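pasting for ref. prot 1 ->
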Amino acid sequence: MRMKRAFLIVLDSLGVGMLEDAYLYGDEGANTLLSIYNTGLLNIPNLRALGIGDITGVEYLKTGKRVASVGRLREMSAGKDTTTGHWEIAGILTHEPMPTFPEGFPKDMLQEFERRIGRQVLCGLPYSGTAVINEYGKEHIRTGMPIVYTSADSVFQIAAHEDVISRETLYEYCKSAREMLVGKWGVGRVIARPFIGKEGSFTRTDGRRDFSLRPPEDNLLTSLMSCGLDVISVGKIKDIFAGVGITEAIPTHSNSEGIATFLELLRRDFNGLCFINLVDFDMKYGHRQDAVGYALALNEFDACLSKALPVLREDDVLIITADHGCDPSDDSTDHTREHTPLIIYGKSILPADLGTGDSFANIGKTVCSLLGAKPNFTLGEDLTSKILK
């Protein structure tokens, strides 16, 4: 049966247990979902009814009879970041990890960026986003120099007070950085981080924007678009794919906005894919080592399923997954190299046990098949023969 609408939701960083090669990344023992469960606050009856507890390694959430096809996926690509994970979901294999700068950015990189924007910069080191503005914010306001920093991820982040450097100018700086950062400097994302407030009470605003590397043209999104199907981006999906293959983009600034948009789109008629990223799990809770906040956020998402599942149409499919892990209870604020969950639900979907798949791209291949589109990529396995009634 051909589906008309597919809703693909990425619970950003909800890993379900370390991959076999996690030791290569310093992530032995990582298990994001288990750490959240161990808070004792997890209340996700809808995900449990769908069958999340039937995924290998998630037996602690097992209930009774499941109603969805479930499994877990390995990441074939090198890395454990947002761009790599989403790209593989869409059928793109990343052979080499995107560069990171644990000792800070090279002097020649910073000098070239300064030359391009016509002003000096502050910092250039790995920092948490809140700590860096607290430490360098006063100097930034005094000098007008933007704050440049990185993290454990493959990112080049630029922070600026909105009263000192406007959002528009900050975005132009990010575009200059994106043009520069290729080859050995080709970070996955350049991120604008505007903030407001006074010293001692600086806060980041909702003006964040991500500027990603342009993905290869052969992927899930372009496959669907070339067949005349809709590809609706919700949240940072458009940024992750640099706009490639997107027919409509709906920006959001929180999980709550993303969830509300999802519920609105369920009532809208379209023909194709709605691709949603819920970023708070990673940005607000995983990186900040906040297992309690993570649990409450997952509870909020689960509650939305009470409204969503009953209104799915006969020719709809809902797919829930993640892009990597970010264990909030380990010794690092970095992403973690983990399996990701795969939950596929719809009125025409069997409650199959999908075991462990060899690539996140199984999702991309399956979405193409369900929507009747020919994939222009080879990575991944089409699961339709296992999941359709």
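and prot 2 ->
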Amino acid sequence: MKSQEELKADIYAEVRERLDLSREMEDGELWDLIYRIIAEKSEEQYMSIRQRETLAGEIFASLRKLDILQELLDDDEITEIMVNGPEDIFIEKRGILQKTDKKFQSAEKLEDVIQQIVASCNRTVNESSPIVDGRISDGSRVNVVLKPPALNGPIVTIRRFPETAITMEDYIAFGSITPQAAVFLQKAVEYGYNIFISGGTGSGKTTLLNILSGYIPSGQRIITIEDSAELQIKGVKNLVRLETRNATREGCEAISIRDLIKTSLRMRPDRIIVGEVRGAEAFDMLQVFNTGHEGSLSTAHANSASDMLMRLEMMVLMAKDLPLSAIRRQIASGIDLLIHLGRMRDGSRKVMEILEIKGIIGEEIALNPLFVLEEGEKGKTSLVPVNSLQNKEKWIEG
């Protein structure tokens, strides 16, 4: 008696052999063909109705979707899918990292799925260009690394986002922020504060950026700049979305975040949203913040708010050899509020701090903590107000 995997391989091979390659088969026709072959095979070996349904779904996913990854993508509770070669597939579900029992039939099958993914992103990945970032049709972010850098086989990391954008009400219900801090941030966006969001991997920077973007007045012209377009800004008619592009073997030049920031300044923006800064583009982003585009937003990776300021200094130095004092003045004059996010031990994501950048005192950037996450009774944490705004040029409290 054949195992489930052997049966699947036999049926898959038979379906491929009988496919009519002279035309594009409809999904319904393909389902009929799969079930017909399964019925034939069941005469040789008994299969329960559940086995038949499972085999049919897996084979259809292999041919028209993303093979064994499709079931994981269809599970709304899974937020991250990590493929470490054909046999090691991990997921993050409800904030918990766990290994699945799923495996690709071979490294070649995994590579076929990867090519299908990158083709849908209009990207290319191969041995000469083995690293690619993109997004798939459901909006999920995908990163692919092939050999030679990937020593244990093709690596795929998929960050999933909810089909319906998370609102501030959801954010409050999750316990990620308090109602008082939420109202404060809403007013800060409406009144045109330049806001920078920092946090570690998976801390929810893009989610919060998306929520805050929803408070931008609908009559303004917004330009978003991202490596992979993920923001889901609703209710804004005058919206321009820009996305980077890798260089291709056909001779198309790469288009970087820096290129897009520079060209966005000629597009008459009211506000510019830079999805994430990782390097020299931090210099250009600060120019945006300092040249009259009030209410602009961006994010970056950092372990703390103070680390974020140091990282910004280093990233600016990648672009220009400037005195540290000049860089700090650019940061202090350009960014009004710094929001730092963190991920708790239970997997929840929370706003850890909201800080006002007051300016330069001595040679250092001065921070005024406005809200700080504190631990209360029974270990519960809450974002509590600790100070009032000191720089009131844009917005008088109350």
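Residues 1-64 form one domain.
Residues 21 and 46 are 30 Å apart (CA to CA).
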